[in-house]
């Protein structure tokens, strides 16, 4: 255990100490204050063992929270706060910020559509090589990024309040390892539950298959109806739900998706979702270990997983770092909640780096996928107060 007291202290503009981390949803708020200690960092493979060793020493009241990066081999960042509060949500509105922004796309919609073409070409080629090939790519999730620089430091507490205003998401703020000595956080409004555990009961609610929300009610329902009957989106979704069922099955005495696949929505997006419920054989396994086993699911990576992750590294021009990873918390009983870190931005001082991705399967239309990623910036753009024309292609 190492103490990082000076590294991640973030002061609010009013001089009060800001929370170390926060998760706010309609189910309540879990928030930590002050940095106590940090879990020795390591890859997803060893998270379960490191968390178990931590709680053997840290005692019953301890709690760990933080972020897993996208790459399984990269090091996670989990911290223990000095104090924890778990409360019921009080949604205080926060005024929209009026900063001026400079924006840079990495890549823009055309560049992103070209990457999708390239991935579809790889899928066609591998499928043509047929069963003789060991690894045939059936899905890959490609992302793009938007770098936004404000003329003033970004107010993290206001941002978190605006991100949490949508009752269908979990607003989060977690510290990331400082870069070049400067503190940074990951802030987002994730709609996707990777895994939660309470005693022996576990839940996962994967999302895949998307359409934008519309202000006009008729257009909005038409988008939802088209998503519900889209064969491409159903295939894209089934790959994720099957992967999660297969991965969790060995840990469970009972596992099912009683409602099947249904439409779910946030303020900015429609999704196909499957609520998966299970009962663990061994209730002492930690939610962090289960989250690490699942991560990254084909909702953010692809199938086969390692093959898709390698191709993402080749096709995307940047390292995803903590985007498309997982954020969450875990207590000494192993109970906790872990979310897929999407609809998020890495924030340091005046800059926010937003990310958005979309699942590509045979039949995907490159420009439609580019438009989908534009729509997925929506939650963060609205919370930061950024207007972006390009999100409507
Ligand atoms: C990758 C993202 O979202 C994921 C991809 C989805 C899709 O391709 O339809 C839907 C929900 C998420 O699992 C993102 O928002 O960045």
UniProtKB/TrEMBL annotation:
EC number annotated for this UniProt entry: 5.4.4.2
Enzyme class label: isomerase
Lineage: superkingdom: Bacteria
Keyword entries, A-Z: Isomerase
Pfam families to which the protein is assigned, alphabetical: Chorismate_bind
Catalytic activity, reaction form: chorismate = isochorismate
Chorismate-utilising enzyme C-terminal domain segment(s): 131-376
The keyword Isomerase is assigned to this record: yes
A molecular function GO annotation: isochorismate synthase activity
Signal peptide, first to last residue: none
Keyword Isomerase: yes
Similarity comment text for this entry: Belongs to the isochorismate synthase family.
Name recorded for this polypeptide: isochorismate synthase
Protein's organism: Teichococcus aerophilus
